Amino acid sequence: MGNSALKAHLETAQKTGVFQLTGKGLTEFPEDLQKLTSNLRTIDLSNNKIELLPPLIGKFSFLKSLVLNNNKLTALPEELCKLKKLETLHLNGNHLRQLPTAFGQLSALKTLSLSGNQLRTVPTQLSGLRHLDVVDLSKNQIQNVPDTVGELQAIELNLNQNQISQISVQISHCPRLKVLRLEENCLELSMLPQSILSDSQISLLAVEGNLFEIKKLRELEGYDKYMERFTATKKKFA
């Protein structure tokens, strides 16, 4: 991509606060963007070949949305965690194995999408985020859901298409969790904590494609309580 094209994009971004450059085969984060650290609210560099996010990402202090789907990122810099206004972070289809240590400092984060990466567990850093609404960890290599999940503030947690065979009973203590997606995992019915049904806020539990028949779920104690929440929610949105 020529300099003049990039220049035109930068000029538009300066006016709109949005920099979008997708599917252009970029191998690195455009350094020229640092001229706009105080302008940009949205950066979308999806469908490129970016391998590294430079530390200068931490300078975009007004950034609300960062979208880097389908790149080649293997790690994220700690500087990313300085983005105190960041509400939306989409990193689907990369090669991430973990999140930066200070990830819990992204205090405004509402939507986090990490589908199609190489995470092996639910990152403990997520427990510190107080405004999370949706967390998508589908299509990773997660095998178990640890105790720290009990502190997760999200409303929806998507764990579809992982290799989960164990879930901490603490998941039923999530204060705001309404939607839990666990489709296409490796769960035996005995490994599904019964308290999810009898003693949680969860009103939509999606568990198709595991190692048990769905109708067996209906025989579990607490299923009627779960159905009450399910039906009440359905009415609310009807």
TrEMBL record:
Keywords in alphabetical order: Leucine-rich repeat, Repeat
Keyword field contains Transferase: no
Record-linked InterPro entries: Leu-rich_rpt, Leu-rich_rpt_typical-subtyp, LRR_dom_sf, LRR_domain-containing
Any GO CC annotation of this UniProt entry: cytoplasm
SMART domains membership: LRR_BAC, LRR_TYP
Superkingdom of the source species: Eukaryota
Protein name: Leucine-rich repeat-containing protein 57
Lineage: Eukaryota, Metazoa, Chordata, Craniata, Vertebrata
UniProt organism field: Aramus guarauna (Limpkin)
